[in-house]
Amino acid sequence: MLNYSPPSSLDGVFHSLADPTRRQIVERLTLKSASVKELAEPFNMSLPAVMLHLQILEASGIVTSRKQGRVRTVTINPEPLLKAESWISQRKQVWSRMFDQLEEFLDAEEEETK
Q1: What gap in Å lies between CA 40 and CA 26, rounded to an integer?
Q2: Which residues contact 15 (CB under 8 A, 6 or more apart)?
Q3: How far is C-alpha 106 from the geometric centre of its chain's CA atoms?
Q4: Phi, psi of 22 (to 5 degrees)
Q5: Whole-angstrom Cα distance, residue 17 to residue 20?
Q6: Is beta strand 71-76 parallel, antiparallel or unpaired with respect to 34-35?
Q7: Residues in CB range of 10: below 8 A, 6 or more apart
Q8: Selecting from 1.10.10.10, 1.25.10.10, 3.30.420.40, 3.20.20.120, what CATH number does the domain 9-113 have?
Q9: What are the structural domain ranges in the chain?
Q10: pLDDT greater than 90 at residue 3
């Protein structure tokens, strides 16, 4: 039986970024904040569908939104993305060390066979 634990904030970030539409929204928001209507313009989907994507991004903390009158403006929050970048960077360091060790081992094996 699997033990269930609630997803971590990092899980939410990776889940949010797994969808190409949400990645495109994040890309646009890195340039400037935008209204939901502006974010929806390039997509061939309904405004409610775009809102669902934004809800997922907001739940993971990648974006924040504020409503002023009838306009909801969405802004990027870089903190969760920086945490994901840090996690990936740490894994990359580990992988690089392992590949370096493998290379040293293979070089030593090759020297022994000569």
Answers
A1: 12
A2: 7, 56, 60
A3: 36
A4: -65, -35
A5: 7
A6: antiparallel
A7: 80, 83, 84, 87
A8: 1.10.10.10
A9: 9-113
A10: no
Q: What is the pLDDT of residues 21-55, one digit of tens each?
A: 999 999 999 999 999 999 999 999 999 999 999 99
- Percentage above 90 pLDDT, the chain: 71
Amino acid at 52: L
Contact call for residues 64 and 75 (beta carbons, < 8 A)? yes
Q: Closest by alpha carbon to 21, among 41, 48, 46, 50?
A: 50
What does the DSSP assignment read for the chain? Answer: -PPP-PPPHHHHHHHHHTSHHHHHHHHHHHH--EEHHHHHTTSSS-HHHHHHHHHHHHHTTSEEEEEETTEEEEEE-HHHHHHHHHHHHHHHHHHHHHHHHHHHHHHHHHHHH-
Residue carrying structure tokens 């797994």: 18
